[in-house]
Amino acid sequence: MHIRRPRPGASARIQPSEITPESVYLNRRTLLQAALAAGVGGLGTAIAPDAVAAIETRSLEYRRNQKYSLDQPANSYEDITTYNNYYEFGVDKGDPAANSGRFHPTPWTVAVAGEAEVTGKFALEDVLKPHALEERVYRLRCVEAWSMVIPWVGIPLGDVLKRFKPTSKAKYVAFKTVLRPTQMPGQRYPVLEWPYVEGLRMDEAMHPLSILAVGLYGKSLPNQNGAPLRLIVPWKYGFKGIKSIVEIRFTEREPRTSWNISAPHEYGFYANVNPKVDHPRWSQARERRIGGGLFDSRVPTLMFNGYEQEVASLYRGMDLRKYY
Amino acid sequence: MPSALVVRRAFKPALFVLCLLPLLSLVWRAFGLADTNLGANPVEKVQDTLGLWGLRLLVITLAVTPLRDWFGAPWLIQLRRMLGLFAFTYVLLHFLTWLILDQGLYWSGILKDIGLRPFITIGFLALVLLVPLAVTSTNGMMRRLGRRWKALHRLVYAIVLLGVWHYYWQVKADVREPLIYLAITLVLLGWRVWKRRGARPVHRPAPASAAAREPASTPNR
Asked: Which residues of B touch A263 (CB under 8 A)?
């Protein structure tokens, strides 16, 4: 039911049960209780949300990181997995879910290259093995002015990068998405330059908020959300979160990034969420939260997507209008 | 050729229902009938659907005259007013969805958007230009305006181009669909130019004033 009239005097408060399907919501409670029972830092076993349909995802073992939780309820698994951008599978928000069925995320290899002591090709399992998976609930703000709250499962990017021993020349880290036009129909037409590439400044990559995600809602990532490995940088617009990563390269110079190549005056390298710097074609001051009904209004966008305290120091002295 | 009665009693009501279907489908899904829904972003779905059908109906309206000539079907002209008015209705509802559901009547943002964001300015301009066409669409207005009616309604050429431009500019990267609309529009407009320039002296050596070619009751847009 999408027509929902605001209740008098309660317009701003949305009950979690209204946004997340009740089954998922209840399961999350059970999950939290299980984690608590096991003690802080104990392993909670993922409970599959009922919303999961036929997508082949496996349950993950992870620990919930309480440090990264939000007051807002998370979006439903259904919304997160059926409304997103992944141009490799088509340009409409429903395309990734509809067209990613033939993508095979296993086995998976990640190439590490560039200014680091440890380089080469690594099986995904070996990249992940030394790290404990953790769940973090992050806001996600799309450059198109809509937003979600997503419980990712992943590992801090910095911890992974350190294992490759970047040299002093490593000022940036560049990422590349897999190129598989046979499995990714969107890559058969040059909407963007394929393969998709993204990058971060080294201090951004090492920031504790930056993670490599392998799952959401306690299950491995479905194809449409970037299986098997994707980047999450919650204070930046969603397009920085490159999906299905096959290459990590340490570089001395600022790497090229796909949307910047496509429209340099609209999408910069930094792409920090900033309500004061508008997209040339639309305002970034307010955003639409996915999961609301027809009559839900937009809410103000927060500086650095609400992570200002944690990340503002990275950009001290920088003109964020120039480095958008 | 179908009689005027068939057009009035059968074709027009059928077209009316047909034009109403996209709107009905939105209402149906908004109420979640038969387990349907508007997806994760219902406001965007409503706004995009209304805008797209507004543009489609504008293009279809523009296609009426060429189709009449290509297929020798003068009765098609009798459907054009309804198509045009439906186009206006969808464009208006598209605008109102943006104004009320999307922007929530947040006026400072709305005025800034209309003034500063070219793609919104263009869309708004197209809507404003459609208003006089809708207002003067009655038989009485056609009579009263006479030859000027036709000149006024040529505005629709510019309106369709503005609509396509609005769509093109709104798209993030994949401009294929807007370009398809542009191509169709250019064919429909180009054909009119070709008809005026090429056809008059070559194929119609006899005096062929606009009035003689097109009876006043079926003004040519």
From this structure: 173
Please report whether residue A1 resides in a domain: no
The confidence score (pLDDT) of residue B93 equals 98
The DSSP line for A42-67 is PPEEP---TT--S----B-EEEE-TT
E-strand spans in A280-322? 286-289, 299-300
Distance CA B93, CA A211 (A): 43
| DSSP secondary structure string for all residues of A76-101 | PHHHHHHS---GGG-SSTTHHHHH-T
Rounded CA-CA distance A221/A216 in Å is: 6
Question: Is residue A89, in this structure, part of any structural domain at all?
Answer: yes
Distance from CA of B152 to the nearest CA of A (A): 31
Residues of chain A with pLDDT under 70: 1-55
Domain that holds residue A121: 16-315
Q: Domain of A236: which CATH number?
A: 3.90.420.10
Give A99's contacts in chain B (Cβ within 8 Å).
none
* Cross-strand bridge partners of residue A211: A156, A232
B24: Cβ contacts below 8 Å, ≥ 6 apart: none
Cis peptide leading into residue A195 (ω within 30°): yes
Structure tokens at A2: 């999408």
Cβ-nearest to B37 among A2, A286, A297:
A2
Residue A323 lies in a domain: no
Collect all residues of chain A within an 8 Å Cβ-Cβ radius of residue B29: 2
In the numeric block, which tokens belong to residue A55?
């997508």
Other residues' Cβ atoms within 10 Å of the Cβ of residue A142: 20
Question: Would you call B46 and A294 a contact, using CB atoms and an 8 Å cutoff?
Answer: yes
Q: How far is CA A53 from CA A19, A38, A184, A201, in A?
A: 18, 29, 21, 38
Model pLDDT, residue B200: 57
Q: Please state the ipTM of this predicted complex.
A: 0.82
- The answer to pTM > 0.90 is no
Residue of A265, A269, A120 whose CA lies nearest to A204: A269
Please name which of A156, A308, A295, A296 lies closest in space to residue A232, comparing C-alpha atoms. Answer: A156
Give the Å distances, CA to CA, from B137 to A140, B85, B120.
48, 8, 26
